[in-house]
Amino acid sequence: LIGPNMEKATGAQMELISLARIHEYLSIPQEQPRWLENDAKYQSFSVRIWRRGLGRLHCKVEGAGLQVCRGEQTLLQATPCGSALVAAQAASALLQDLCPDCRDLGRALPWHRVVAVGDAARDAESMA
Fold first, then answer.
1. Which domain of life is it from (predicted)?
2. Which burial class, exposed, middle or buried, applies to 32 when counting CB atoms under 10 A from its CB (0-12, 13-18, 19+)?
3. CB within 8 Å of 125: residues ≥ 6 apart
4. Is the separation of the CB atoms in 94 and 102 below 8 Å?
5. 3-class secondary-structure state, position 12
6. Between 92 and 102, whose confidence is greater?
7. Higher model confidence: residue 31 or residue 91?
8. pTM: predicted TM-score of the whole model, two decimal places
């Protein structure tokens, strides 16, 4: 009588161990989706603009910084490391100010950077 009961108890214990392993497996954190809804704003993108669409631009150096201006309005300024151009620090400055007719530039957020212009890349002075 003890033999069959021990066999059943051992079988039940093995089933409980299997269930514990399944429970442990299911409680492992799952991976996040590869793409989230708000990822689009963090993507890099390229824009092609005709030079005549930019109007008359000129460069000026103030202090240690390079600035790209149209008339008296500063549109772009070099990053501190000099590897890119960003929208000027004015409250409403955006990259779209370069070419208001360019819808693609409208996608740019204030923290986006210009990292290449034509053959010049990663050098604000060459890009300006």
1. Eukaryota
2. exposed
3. 66, 78, 82
4. no
5. helix
6. 102
7. 31
8. 0.66
| Residue pLDDT, tens place only, 106-117 | 888 888 888 998
Task: Give the pair of three-digit tokens for residue 127.
Answer: 């890009």
The pLDDT value recorded for residue 17 is 92
Which single residue is written with the structure tokens 């003890």?
Answer: 2
> Which residue type is seen at 104?
D
| Closest residue by Cα to residue 44 from 111, 128, 92, 126 | 111
From residue 41, give the alpha-carbon distance in Å to each of 32, 36, 107, 122.
18, 11, 8, 22
Q: Which residues pair with 77 in a beta bridge?
A: 67, 86
Residues, the chain: 128
Looking at residues 28-32, what average pLDDT do you find?
83
pLDDT value at residue 22: 92
What is the predicted pLDDT for the residue at 91? 61
Buried b (16+ CB within 10 A) or exposed e, 45-82: eebeeeeeeeeeeeeeeeeeebbbbeeeebbbbbeeee
For the chain, the structural domain boundaries read: 1-30, 39-127
d(CA 85, CA 112): 9
Amino acid identity of residue 42, one-letter, is Y
